[in-house]
Amino acid sequence: MSSPREREAAEYIKKHEIVDLMDNLTSMLFFYRPDRPRKFLIDQLEKLKISKDHQGNTPCLLNVSNLDALFGILDPSNQGCITYGQYKEVLKTIGIKNFSAFPDGASENKISQETFIREVTNSL
């Protein structure tokens, strides 16, 4: 059984999504491999603070060109859409837990590239 202090710490970590934050920052470090990692982390945290204060774009490992490429992999025949199942699976695979369960096109089982990019960006 854990102590009250351990439970309090676990609740704090969960409430403030510390594990997700650290996972994201670590992933960004490995992806970008900056020469000055501490400065890079400080910059990312400052960008995050600004985005939270002004409802702007949060620092993210995936940008629009990455999402375009990912969509292209899911749509190799260039139909301009992916299935709802593909949409759900890829979001789970890239670690997005909270996403729209019914994005535009879900009822037709056709998620457009525009919808895919918007939903992933909003969910990140």
TrEMBL record:
<dbReference type="Pfam" id="PF24548">
    <property type="entry name" value="EF_EFCAB10_C"/>
</dbReference>
<dbReference type="InterPro" id="IPR011992">
    <property type="entry name" value="EF-hand-dom_pair"/>
</dbReference>
<dbReference type="InterPro" id="IPR002048">
    <property type="entry name" value="EF_hand_dom"/>
</dbReference>
<dbReference type="InterPro" id="IPR049760">
    <property type="entry name" value="DD_EFCAB10"/>
</dbReference>
<dbReference type="InterPro" id="IPR056587">
    <property type="entry name" value="EF_EFCAB10_C"/>
</dbReference>
<dbReference type="GO" id="GO:0005509">
    <property type="term" value="F:calcium ion binding"/>
</dbReference>
<dbReference type="InterPro" id="IPR039879">
    <property type="entry name" value="EFC10"/>
</dbReference>
<protein>
    <submittedName>
        <fullName>EF-hand calcium-binding domain-containing protein 10 isoform X2</fullName>
    </submittedName>
</protein>
